[in-house]
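Final report, Chapter 2: Outcomes

The project's central promise was a pipeline that accepts a single protein chain and returns its three-dimensional structure in a standardized token representation, suitable for archiving and comparison. That pipeline is now operational. To close this chapter, we reproduce one record exactly as it appears in the project archive, with the input sequence first and the structure output second.
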Amino acid sequence: MHPSDEDDITPPDPAQHKKLLDKIRRHALYLLTRRDHTLLELKQKLSRKDYPTTDIDAILIRLEETGLINPRRFTESYTHYRRNKGYGPKRIAMELQTKGIEEAVIAEHIQITDNAWLNDIQKIWRKHFKGQRPTDPKTHAKQLRFLYNRGFTQNQINNLFKNSDALDE
């Protein structure tokens, strides 16, 4: 008779397990001191270090309960950062979704119909195209594509080109 696999399993040493949890917590805190992270981002980064998933989850839940991981704060900070880099609301919302932020939190921070986005699209257009209006359909399509890929809505792009005063400012 062969001994079963269950007989070979030894329970983890509580002192060793506590050290491991402390190590995971320190690593997570180190990452959070550099910048805000989402729960998903932290989980992915800690998983790359081959820490046990159940331990990672336990630490992250505690960090979220204490407010060190805050999806609303992350969303606000990330939105501000990406907006200043010249990205529109659709692109920022998509990026936030891939980082594990819930749609309700995204909608709370990114109001796509907000008129402030019109100012942003004007600044981006002027900076990238040096204020040169499209003179032919090919140039017009190029400018539309650029703004669309930056994450602005079709409505915002149309409003930019309809409002010729905005292009001349």
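Archive annotation: The two ends are 87 Å apart (CA to CA).
This record, like all others produced under the grant, will remain available to the consortium after the project formally closes.
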